[in-house]
Amino acid sequence: MISRGLLCLALAVCAGSVLAQDLSVPSTWREPQNKLNIAERVIVSQTALNSLLPELNKTAAQFNVLGYWQGGNVFSAMANEDHVTRLRLNQGVVTTNLNKAFALYADYDQQMYDDDALWWATAAYYAYRAYGDKNLLSHAIKTWEHVKTFQLSPQDAASGSIATKSFPIMGSCEGKTMAGGVFWRPVANDTGVNSVTTGLFLTLSAYLAEATHNSTYQDSAIAAATWMKTLNMNSDGLALDTINANDCSRSPPTWLFTYNSGKLIEGLSVLADITGDQSWRDFLTNTVAAVTHTTAWQGANGVITEGADTDSDNDGAGFKTILIRAVHEAWARGSKDPQMRDLLRSYINVQYNALLELASTENKGVRWYSAAWAGPQPTNYTAWGQLAALDVLVSAVDINPLV
Ligand SMILES: *[C@@H]1O[C@H](CO)[C@@H](O)[C@H](O)[C@H]1NC(C)=O
Ligand SMILES: *[C@@H]1O[C@H](CO)[C@@H](O)[C@H](O)[C@H]1NC(C)=O
Ligand SMILES: *[C@@H]1O[C@H](CO)[C@@H](O)[C@H](O)[C@H]1NC(C)=O
Ligand SMILES: *[C@@H]1O[C@H](CO)[C@@H](O)[C@H](O)[C@H]1NC(C)=O
User: Fold this and answer.
1) Is 212 near ligand 4, meaning CB less than 6 Å away?
2) Whose CA is nearest to atom 1 of ligand 2?
3) Which residue among 181, 292, 345, 364 sits deepest, i.e. has the most Cβ atoms within 10 Å of its Cβ?
4) CA 197 to the chain's CA centroid
5) 311 alpha carbon to ligand 4 midpoint, in Å?
6) Domain coordinates in residue numbering, the chain
7) Is the pTM of this model over 0.90?
8) Cα angle at 253 between 250 and 259, to 5 degrees?
9) pLDDT for 143-187, tens place per residue?
10) CATH fold for domain 151-185+191-296
11) Could you say which ligand is closest to the alpha carbon of residue 309?
């Protein structure tokens, strides 16, 4: 029997996607089974969402302590809670603040970051999905049209320039076209094209295509997914971070963040549905297998340890909740793949049980969550610890039986 590695060498075709699809639940994972009933899970999640409201600055549509992009993700979790429970307990605060931010910050961009704009536009899409509010859908579309001017087209790649940037661009890197990649910042001289912005754009484009049946969005989603697949994955099947479009230089290979692979998973799960294209489903399955089994951000017990800062907020504290939201979406759309679904439910439940048993403490009816999911239990309230827990708590409502 010829080994897989030798076969790949001989045929030179095993570039990532056809390799390793381990969808097993590791026996070393800590508590992959849920213990709470549906009513308890809804209370846990809604209480955590409410716990951030005292931090909301209503004038600015932002939360004290949290970064602007993180605040957008609080509203995403609130809208997704309502999507899952259909209770609409958060509709007022979500709608008011998504409208407020859109009025205050042009195209949802507060500080010249395309990913910021997309976090908020995605929140507006989730709110549209939960409430059917067309006005919020129009905010998402308007923001999409703005960020679209920062996605490299095949023509940009051929000409070596893009209208929104002041420097000559490399049309291809390592022999592969840069078309489909999305710039991180709308600043004319900023060169970074990265996974989070491209993955967010993939995801929003795929959702808009699904909602509107407008092929413009599907084409943009395919271009973004193609850029990820051909240029920005490592050999373990995880998303890398940045490529600079002026010289093809890359971020360090050690920059492996949950949210980069997370946005890819969420986008691919929608793209696979709207296109029915098996190649996107295969890419999704491979990325799910890689993400859930990696040692890049979790121990053998499966508990994510990335962004475990208990002293102060930082961007990294907000990453892992994005991955859990993404694998929840893949779970929700994964009815044709029970093995993958079981793996994803187990993965989310591992985080859920860790949060409840290792990383939280009850104080006067409010549970404080630590950003350090493997523990120890927190001794105080931190807004970023609450934020990091949200998508786990919301997802756990949905993935476990309705009893
Ligand atoms: C709310 O945000 C605005 C705008 O950034 C700021 O001027 C104001 O001081 C904030 N209010 C509170 C109570 O922090
Ligand atoms: C990039 O442009 C900004 C203005 O948009 C300017 O402040 C900055 O100095 C420029 N950076 C470089 C490296 O040229
Ligand atoms: C499809 O979406 C694009 C981008 O938002 C828009 O310019 C175009 O008018 C839409 N087409 C239709 C038929 O609505
Ligand atoms: C809050 O608790 C964490 C441990 O969970 C600790 O590291 C931090 O210093 C505490 N901060 C304050 C202000 O007490």
Assistant:
1) no
2) 189
3) 181
4) 10
5) 6
6) 37-143, 151-185+191-296, 299-402
7) yes
8) 95
9) 999 999 999 999 999 999 999 999 999 999 999 999 999 999 999
10) Glycosyltransferase (1.50.10)
11) 4
